[in-house]
């Protein structure tokens, strides 16, 4: 089995390490040739995973054709809003029967499409050729080989099992699932809820607030998932509750950290600058998740409020007041 990992940020690099540690021959693609050189020769990616030693068998190149040559698995792991444009450039290079694997957790702005939908559309691949990996997977913890589990979702059971085999490492345990919609939705919406949890923490609120946001966040994710045809059980699993808990609680989360800065009174520009170029997907995906919900007539109050915050229309104090002054209802 040979894999190409397109994207050399924190998750792409970490997942490439998982693949190699699972016995899968892996080549990464990096935008910058200097970074590709550093990964191949120094077995490190200091820009995204400082202090982590990468496997000596892991190679990187800045030539996408070289990375994709003969790949059975093509792993896509770049910021969601850049997928369509990048994939257009890679389509001719994709091996015809390769499984296309999305590691991204976002919804496309404008179209409100999930990443697997964008992949199918741009690459002309049927949904059975597209898999999604999502779960409580904070990159640095995994790069340090701390045990975690994840979900590999694919409509085609055999392809799902192929991806599962390719990424089963001593510290990484993938479960298969056929619910691509629920798995992707869990990953995208939890980033928005993590922004809210971070903001609450930045305002000085404690665990009751976090738990309330996580639980009601899961309720709105499930409502939207049901409207889109997802399996409700997915939201009780690793790609739902699992990822929500990990991301909303961890200082490693870029989304949570972004929200925390806002809660402490920093501006959107200051919070953006503090990401040092790393992607906090929820800041943009809150708009596309809201679009998706509105198209399906689903109420997503936390997402709605966070979209107003991320557009700079309201601040953290108004956001909290708006959520707490909604009409009372049954759970
Ligand atoms: N970091 C994490 O713990 C996890 C991240 N994810 C998801 O994986 C995806 C990628 O995230 P990370 O690797 O963490 O992001 P990152 O910000 O660490 O790295 C992004 C990578 O994409 C590249 N990139 C940026 N703009 C680009 C463009 N216009 N065209 C091509 N490449 C571009 C960067 O050079 C970098 O290699 C996101 O959707 C994220 O939600 C999923 C699970 C865990
Ligand atoms: O998706 C993640 C953990 O599962 C990473 O979250 P952040 O993108 O907020 O860092």
UniProtKB/TrEMBL annotation:
Keywords: Cytoplasm, Lipid biosynthesis, Lipid metabolism, NAD, NADP, Nucleotide-binding, Oxidoreductase, Phospholipid biosynthesis, Phospholipid metabolism. Residues 2-156 form the Glycerol-3-phosphate dehydrogenase NAD-dependent N-terminal domain. One of its GO terms (molecular function) is glycerol-3-phosphate dehydrogenase [NAD(P)+] activity. It comes from the Bacteria. NADPH binds at residues 10-11, 31-32, 48, 105, 139, 254, 279, 281. It catalyses: sn-glycerol 3-phosphate + NAD(+) = dihydroxyacetone phosphate + NADH + H(+); sn-glycerol 3-phosphate + NADP(+) = dihydroxyacetone phosphate + NADPH + H(+). It is found in: Cytoplasm. The active site is at residue 190. Gene3D superfamilies: N-(1-d-carboxylethyl)-l-norvaline Dehydrogenase, domain 2 (1.10.1040.10), NAD(P)-binding Rossmann-like Domain (3.40.50.720). Its EC number is 1.1.1.94. Residues 179-316 form the Glycerol-3-phosphate dehydrogenase NAD-dependent C-terminal domain. Sn-glycerol 3-phosphate binds at residues 105, 135, 190, 243, 253-255. It is an enzyme of class 1 (oxidoreductase). Pathway: Membrane lipid metabolism; glycerophospholipid metabolism. It holds the Pfam family NAD_Gly3P_dh_N. Catalyzes the reduction of the glycolytic intermediate dihydroxyacetone phosphate (DHAP) to sn-glycerol 3-phosphate (G3P), the key precursor for phospholipid synthesis. Belongs to the NAD-dependent glycerol-3-phosphate dehydrogenase family. HAMAP family: NAD_Glyc3P_dehydrog. This is Glycerol-3-phosphate dehydrogenase [NAD(P)+].
């Amino acid at each position: 089995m040979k894999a190409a990992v397109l994207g050399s940020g924190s998750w792409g690099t970490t997942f490439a390490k998982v693949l190699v540690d699972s016995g899968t021959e892996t080549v990464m693609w990096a935008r910058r040739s200097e970074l590709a050189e550093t990964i191949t020769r120094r077995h490190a990616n200091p820009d995204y995973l400082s202090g982590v030693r990468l496997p000596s068998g892991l190679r990187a190149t800045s030539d996408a054709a070289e990375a994709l040559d003969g790949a059975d698995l093509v792993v896509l792991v770049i910021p969601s809003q850049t997928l369509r444009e990048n994939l257009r450039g890679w389509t001719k290079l994709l091996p015809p029967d390769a499984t296309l694997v999305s590691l991204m957790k976002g919804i496309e702005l404008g179209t409100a499409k999930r990443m697997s939908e964008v992949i199918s559309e741009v690459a002309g691949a049927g949904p059975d050729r597209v898999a999604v990996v999502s779960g409580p997977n904070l990159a640095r913890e995994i790069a340090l080989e701390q045990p975690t589990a994840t979900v590999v979702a694919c409509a085609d059971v055999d392809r799902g099992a192929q991806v599962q085999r390719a990424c089963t490492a001593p510290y990484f345990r993938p479960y298969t699932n056929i619910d691509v919609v629920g798995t992707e939705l869990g990953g995208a919406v939890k980033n928005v809820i993590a922004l809210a949890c971070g903001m609450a923490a930045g305002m000085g609120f404690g665990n009751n607030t976090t738990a309330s946001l996580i639980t009601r966040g899961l309720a709105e994710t499930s409502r939207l998932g049901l409207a889109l045809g997802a399996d409700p059980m997915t939201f009780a699993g690793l790609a739902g509750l699992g990822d929500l808990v990990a991301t909303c609680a961890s200082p490693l989360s870029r989304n949570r950290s972004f929200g925390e800065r806002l809660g402490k009174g920093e501006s959107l520009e200051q919070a953006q600058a503090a990401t040092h170029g790393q992607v906090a997907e929820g800041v943009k995906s809150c708009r596309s998740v809201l679009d998706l919900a509105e198209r399906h007539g689903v109420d997503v109050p936390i997402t709605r409020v966070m979209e107003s915050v991320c557009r700079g229309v309201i601040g953290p104090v108004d956001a909290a007041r708006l959520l707490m002054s909604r009409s009372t209802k049954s759970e």
